[in-house]
């Protein structure tokens, strides 16, 4: 019979905080999840169903769902997604002494 080991959330969190590499991985994953949620949220706020975005992008609805949950989306994919919602993607590089438009 296997013995089940449990860990407290605090213990796991402390392990991540102590290890810079693990912390960076967790932070990247959180950013990716939030970015995906942001895409879906923007789409929902605009009242556009996934199948309509899929039609505009000439992909399946499943692919739109994948884009919304992807942790690293190509800029061209993001541009197409935003345009399918009726918007225009603008990209900036922001530095302490100013910003530069990359679009």
Element layout with pairings:
Blueprint: H1 9-18, H2 20-45, H3 50-57, H4 61-69, H5 75-84, E1 92-95, E2 98-101
Antiparallel strand pairs: 1-2
List keywords for this structure.
single chain; 103 residues; mainly alpha; 434 Repressor (Amino-terminal Domain); two-stranded antiparallel sheet; 2 strands
Q: Report strand %.
A: 5-15%
Percent range for helical residues? 55-70%
Task: State the secondary-structure class.
Answer: mainly alpha
- As for the CATH topology, it is 434 Repressor (Amino-terminal Domain)
The second-level CATH architecture is: Orthogonal Bundle
Order of helical and strand elements: HHHHHEE
Gap from first CA to last CA: 60 Å
Record the strand order, biggest sheet.
1-2
Question: Could you characterize what this model shows?
Answer:
The model has no long low-confidence stretch (mean pLDDT 82). This protein is mostly helical. A two-stranded antiparallel ribbon has the order 1-2. α1 (9-18) crosses α2, α2 crosses α4 (61-69) and α3 crosses α4. It is 61% helix and 8% strand. It has one domain (9-101): lambda repressor-like DNA-binding domains (434 Repressor (Amino-terminal Domain), Orthogonal Bundle). The relative contact order is 0.10. The longest helix has 26 residues, at 20-45.
Structure, briefly:
This protein is mostly helical and 103 residues long.
């Amino acid at each position: 019979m296997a013995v089940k080991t449990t860990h407290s959330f605090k213990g796991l969190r402390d392990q991540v905080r102590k290890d810079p590499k693990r912390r960076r991985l967790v932070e990247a994953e959180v950013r990716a999840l939030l970015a995906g949620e942001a895409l879906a949220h923007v789409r929902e706020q605009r009242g556009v169903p996934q199948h309509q975005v899929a039609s505009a992008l000439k992909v399946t609805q499943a692919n739109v769902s994948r884009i919304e949950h992807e942790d690293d989306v190509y800029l061209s994919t993001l541009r197409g997604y935003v345009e399918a919602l009726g918007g225009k993607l603008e990209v900036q590089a922001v530095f302490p002494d100013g910003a530069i438009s990359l679009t």
